[in-house]
Structures are given as structure tokens and as C-alpha cells.
């Protein structure tokens, strides 16, 4: 199925592997998913299938093909469009084949359908309940045209629809070949046995772990409808015998933008976060018999319709995943990992006025790699796909430039982006671009962690803030992490960094020779080596990459930091902010040394956010320092 989609899709987004496939049984339970599927679709495809089968109960026929993107029916967000095909043998429904693809646009006021100003899903794009697009083998042109003509680049949307439908047909064909070869009873038994096997395997591994309850929290930067301060995603995990239960009822109410999650999205985060610590267990509905979750409606992790949720994967979703990483890091410390960078999307759209394009509509849809958290005994992965979609490819810059009037001006690893630790986080990436000939064009951005910055564990420190800087006519403006439909024109430039992962362990325990190697690789600067790691480096010949560790000065520096770092986190935030605005301190000084968070565009102190951030640092870092 994956080969079929990747070879025939029209969308550059889907081509870069933002898709998933699965085989469901006749009740909608997942029998197996693709081995390279992205994490956010894990745990949702069986809900979508069950809802669709219930919707068409009594009217499910050979040759039918369904389409749905409804996030409130077990889905994720409206860009994730699922195509389903019921499979029959001798008139009996035996399975459903399903393909999910992220469509680059599904309508709405903002190109890419990421509208930060949306107060409800009506302002985001086209919400599709279960519909038939093939009825007993007959293509419903009227339905398909109604959908795609309400989306930008309609031809691409139609092409993606057909590519996904063909993938479900290929799966049907292969499944029926197995039925012909082995008999339907054998294949149906294999369906059941595969789910039972996963259940047994998971139960055995959970049973071998200690019973208990573990609790942590992660945060979304803010609720735009309330005063500044973190939005809490609260996760409590209980192991009881051979089962795992997650309780997220302590999470805050849903917020006033699209970073909320639906039930399906948050359950996906629970499953994907858990699966990271059990890589040898295959994935199907057998796991859902062992892992359960309480996701109260009305919270940021289970927003009801019509609350907007298109940005959920950059909001509540990854907060749930990273919180679960921390909980399992306590249970299975040999697999421990600190927080990973936040998923982010930059979208642009308008009319392409380059020679030969004649004002053709374009949609530029980009995500970046970044750093994963430091691990027990190993640094984090650098420039890696986000945890929400570990199978995603980094998009080809040449392909993007051919398709859209945007030129990539920079794509590089960001020095000092990795959270310091005994084992540092992986490094983030900076990507910049310039707008070429275009008309009626806008840009939008969806991310988080400009304030709830990627955190470390076991004494490790945070990464760097996310956010976009937009330059027009020589004037640069920090745009933050969420905005939509900002007008752009030829010559405008933008740049945005992704954070590195959080650090693992006390940075003052890192081997100075490892810090030296990081400097040679441009992962860490000489200045931050001294400030974050207490490692003093003598620069012999930077052009030839020749440096040495000053051992005596390093010991003195580390003693100095140990004696003072707790007091630094108690300094008056207003005084710290003033020193920053006067140029005495830089952003990483505020974040890693003083625990002070500002509105990075204005320099204004965020008092409540600073209090929240310091409390987080106290729990994850200070409590582990010697």
C-alpha cells in the first residue's frame, strides 16, 4: 500500500511519507499497520473504521469506498483524510483496507487549512463525515468534485484521493489472494491470532515490571483567551498487574486556539508514547486491550466539537507523548529519554508568478527536523523527524523550489540548540527562505514551545525556543509560534530554528573531552561550553579546529557554577529581564541559568510563565543536582 501511494500521489506532503495504511477486521479492529507509518495515526485508524462501519451499517457493499476526515469521530485533524474499502468474500464482509494521507489543503480561509484565528472547526476547512466516493464500484463524481472543488489545488486533491483508493484496492487484491491460497477460515484465524499474540506479548512485558503509579506534566505555551501562563497536560500512569492505564483528567480545559486534541489524537499519543519503550511489540488492536486511557471531554486532550483542533499534533499531542517518555524513563531507566523538539509546520500559498507559471495556485507546506532528548548513556539524535511522525522524510529542497516560488536560503544545524546534560540532547536545525515572484500570497505557522521550552530530565537543561522571524523591506519581526495568513510578497525572507532535545543528567558531569568534540563539530560554542557545562576551552586555531580543554580552569568554573546555580534561579525576574533588554544577558542565559521567560518579540517579562518554568526546572533539573 505504501509503495502504491508514494508512486502515484500528487501531493509533495504525502510523497514525503505523511501517510499511513492499515488492515482492519470486519469489526474495524486493526490487524496490522504499515512498518513506516507515522506515529500520530497509530491508535486512530481503528476508531475511524469502527465509526464508518457503524455509520453505513446495513448499506455496506462490495465495491464501496468511503472517505472521512472527521477529527471528532476518532480521527486526528481535518488534513488527515482516510479512505476505506470493505473487503468481501462470497458475499461476507471479512475486512476493511484503509489508507490515511495528510492532504496539503482541505479548504478554509488559510492556505494549508491551518487557521490560528479559527474559533471553531467551521473556520478551519472542510469537515468530512463518512461518505461514499465509490458506490458498488461506481465512482461518485458529484461527491468527489464537491469535496475537491472546495479545496486548493483541486487536481492534486483528486489525485491523492485516487492514489489512496488504489492502495486500498491493492490491499484487497492481496488479501483475497491469501484467502484463495489458504482458505478464509485460516486467514480469519490469523487475524485473531495476530491480535492475541500482541496482547500476550504486551501483557508479559508489563507483568514483569513493578506495579505503581507515576505522574508528570507537560505544557502548552499559553491559552490566548486567558492571562499568560502554561496550559497543563497532566499524565498519570498506573501499572497494575499486566495492564497499563493512563489518567489525563488533571489536564486543563480546552484552549482558545487549534492546539487542542480530540480523543482519537490523544489516544494515539498514549499508544505511540508507550510503543516507543516496547519497540519489539508489533502494533495492532491487541495492544489496546492492555493499554487504556481516561481522556475527559472538555479538556485540552479531548476537545468536543466544534472546538478547533487542526494544530493538535504540535500542541497537546506531543505534550502527551513527551510526558509519557518521562514516565517510562522512570520505569525503564535504561531506555530513558528527555523531551524532544516540538513539531512545527510552516505553510505558504498564493499565486505563482514565476515565468511560465501564469499565476498558477501554489501551496508550500514544510516541516523541519530537530533534536530528540538525551538518553541514559547516549546523546540525543540530531536533525531527526519529530516524534509525532518518526517515519517522515526531510523534504527535498530542490523539489520544493521546483514546485513553489520559495527559495531555501539556509538549512543548517543550530549551534547551542541542544539541551545541555551529561548526555546532551540532539541538535536542532535552522531553515531560512526567500519569497520569489508571487501574488496574493500569505504565510502561516503552527508550533509551540517558545515558552514551555524543550526540557531535560535527571538534571538536564532545556533546548532553545521555537519561532519564526519574518523580514520585510529590511525590517525583521519575531512572529512567534502560531500565526496565520500573514501577507507576503517577493523579496520577503523568513527563518526559523527547531530546538534541540532536552539534556539528560547534570551538564557539569559531562566529560570535558565530549564537550571539546561538540565544539569541533559546531554543536556547542566555546562561550556556552563555559556557561552550560563549566568547561573552559582554549582556542588555539579555530580555523583549523584546534582547541584544548583547560582542566584547572574547568574545575574552578564547575565549582563556581555548583555554588551559585540554585541562587541564579531565585534572582528577581524583573532585574534579569532588565539585564537582558540592556544587552547584558542573552536568551540562553535567561532560559538555562535564570529560568526567566519573556515575550521574545517585545522583551516583556512573563511573570506567571516564569514561575511555571522555574517550577518545572526545579522538578526536572535542580532536584537532581549535587
From TrEMBL:
Q: Which Pfam families match?
A: Hydantoinase_B
Any one of the GO BP annotations: glutathione metabolic process
Which InterPro entries did the record assign?
Hydantoinase_B (IPR003692), Oxoprolinase-like (IPR045079)
Q: Can you list the GO cellular component terms from the UniProt entry?
A: cytosol
- Hydantoinase B/oxoprolinase domain location: 1-507
Molecular function (GO) terms for this protein are: 5-oxoprolinase (ATP-hydrolyzing) activity
Q: Which domain of life is it from?
A: Archaea
Instruction: Read off the PANTHER family from this record.
Output: 5-OXOPROLINASE RELATED, HYPOTHETICAL 5-OXOPROLINASE (EUROFUNG)-RELATED
What name does UniProt use for this protein?
Hydantoinase B/oxoprolinase family protein
Q: What is the lineage of its organism?
A: Archaea, Methanobacteriati, Methanobacteriota, Stenosarchaea group, Halobacteria
Amino acid at each position: 500500500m505504501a509503495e502504491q501511494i508514494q508512486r502515484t500521489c500528487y501531493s509533495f506532503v504525502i510523497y514525503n511519507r505523511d501517510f499511513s495504511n492499515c488492515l482492519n477486521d470486519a469489526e474495524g479492529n486493526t490487524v496490522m499497520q504499515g512498518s513506516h507509518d507515522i506515529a500520530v495515526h497509530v491508535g486512530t485508524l481503528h476508531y475511524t473504521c469502527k465509526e464508518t462501519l457503524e455509520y453505513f451499517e446495513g448499506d455496506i457493499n462490495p465495491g464501496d469506498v468511503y472517505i472521512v476526515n472527521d477529527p471528532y469521530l476518532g480521527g486526528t485533524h481535518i488534513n488527515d483524510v482516510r479512505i476505506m474499502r470493505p473487503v468481501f468474500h462470497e458475499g461476507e464482509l471479512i475486512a476493511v483496507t484503509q489508507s490515511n494521507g495528510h492532504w496539503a489543503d482541505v479548504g478554509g480561509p488559510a492556505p494549508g487549512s491551518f487557521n490560528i484565528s479559527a474559533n471553531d472547526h467551521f473556520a478551519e476547512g472542510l469537515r468530512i463525515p463518512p461518505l461514499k466516493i465509490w458506490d458498488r464500484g461506481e465512482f461518485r463524481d458529484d461527491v468527489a468534485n464537491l469535496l475537491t472543488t472546495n479545496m486548493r489545488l483541486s487536481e492534486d486533491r483528486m489525485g491523492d484521493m485516487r492514489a489512496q483508493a488504489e492502495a486500498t484496492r491493492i490491499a484487497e487484491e492481496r488479501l483475497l489472494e491469501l484467502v484463495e491460497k489458504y482458505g478464509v477460515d485460516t486467514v480469519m484465524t490469523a487475524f485473531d491470532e495476530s491480535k492475541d499474540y500482541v496482547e500476550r506479548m504486551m501483557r508479559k512485558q508489563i507483568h514483569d515490571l513493578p506495579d505503581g503509579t507515576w505522574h508528570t506534566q507537560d505544557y502548552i505555551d499559553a491559552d490566548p483567551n486567558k492571562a499568560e501562563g502554561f496550559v497543563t497536560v497532566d499524565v498519570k500512569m498506573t501499572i497494575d498487574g499486566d495492564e497499563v492505564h493512563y489518567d489525563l483528567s488533571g489536564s486543563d480545559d480546552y484552549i482558545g486556539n487549534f492546539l487542542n486534541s480530540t480523543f482519537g489524537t490523544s489516544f494515539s499519543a498514549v499508544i505511540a508514547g508507550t510503543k516507543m519503550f516496547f519497540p519489539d511489540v508489533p502494533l495492532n488492536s491487541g495492544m489496546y486491550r492492555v493499554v487504556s486511557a481516561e481522556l475527559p471531554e472538555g479538556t485540552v486532550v479531548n476537545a468536543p466539537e466544534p472546538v478547533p483542533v487542526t494544530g493538535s499534533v504540535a500542541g497537546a499531542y506531543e505534550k502527551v507523548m513527551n510526558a509519557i517518555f518521562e514516565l517510562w524513563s522512570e520505569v525503564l531507566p535504561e531506555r530513558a529519554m528527555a523531551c524532544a523538539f516540538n513539531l512545527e509546520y510552516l505553510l505558504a500559498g498564493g499565486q505563482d508568478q514565476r515565468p511560465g507559471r501564469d499565476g498558477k495556485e501554489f501551496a508550500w507546506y514544510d516541516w523541519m527536523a530537530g533534536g530528540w532528548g538525551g538518553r541514559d548513556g547516549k546523546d540525543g539524535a540530531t536533525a531527526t523527524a519529530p516524534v509525532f511522525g518518526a517515519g517522515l522524510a526531510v523534504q527535498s529542497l530542490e523539489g520544493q523550489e521546483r514546485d513553489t516560488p520559495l527559495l531555501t536560503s539556509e538549512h543548517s544545524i543550530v549551534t547551542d540548540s541542544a539541551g545541555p546534560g551529561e548526555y546532551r540532547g540532539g541538535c536542532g536545525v535552522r531553515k531560512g527562505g526567500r519569497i520569489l515572484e508571487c501574488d496574493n500570497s500569505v504565510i502561516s505557522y503552527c508550533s509551540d514551545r517558545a515558552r514551555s521550552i524543550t526540557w531535560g530530565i535527571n538534571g538536564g537543561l532545556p533546548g532553545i525556543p521555537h519561532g519564526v522571524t519574518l523580514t520585510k523591506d529590511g525590517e525583521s519581526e519575531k512572529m512567534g509560534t502560531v500565526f496565520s495568513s500573514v501577507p507576503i510578497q517577493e523579496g520577503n525572507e523568513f527563518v526559523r530554528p527547531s530546538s534541540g532535545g532536552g539534556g539528560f543528567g547534570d551538564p557539569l558531569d559531562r566529560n570535558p573531552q565530549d564537550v571539546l568534540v561538540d565544539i569541533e563539530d559546531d554543536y556547542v560554542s566555546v562561550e556556552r561550553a563555559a556557561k552550560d557545562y563549566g568547561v573552559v576551552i582554549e582556542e588555539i586555531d579555530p580555523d583549523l579546529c584546534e582547541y584544548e580543554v583547560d582542566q584547572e580552569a574547568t574545575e574552578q568554573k564547575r565549582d563556581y557554577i555548583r555554588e551559585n546555580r540554585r541562587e541564579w534561579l531565585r534572582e528577581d525576574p524583573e532585574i534579569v529581564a532588565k539585564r537582558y533588554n540592556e544587552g547584558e544577558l542573552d536568551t540562553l542565559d535567561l532560559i538555562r541559568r535564570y529560568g526567566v521567560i519573556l515575550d521574545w518579540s517585545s522583551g516583556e517579562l512573563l511573570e506567571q510563565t516564569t514561575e511555571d518554568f522555574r517550577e518545572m526546572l526545579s522538578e526536572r533539573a535542580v532536584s537532581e543536582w549535587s
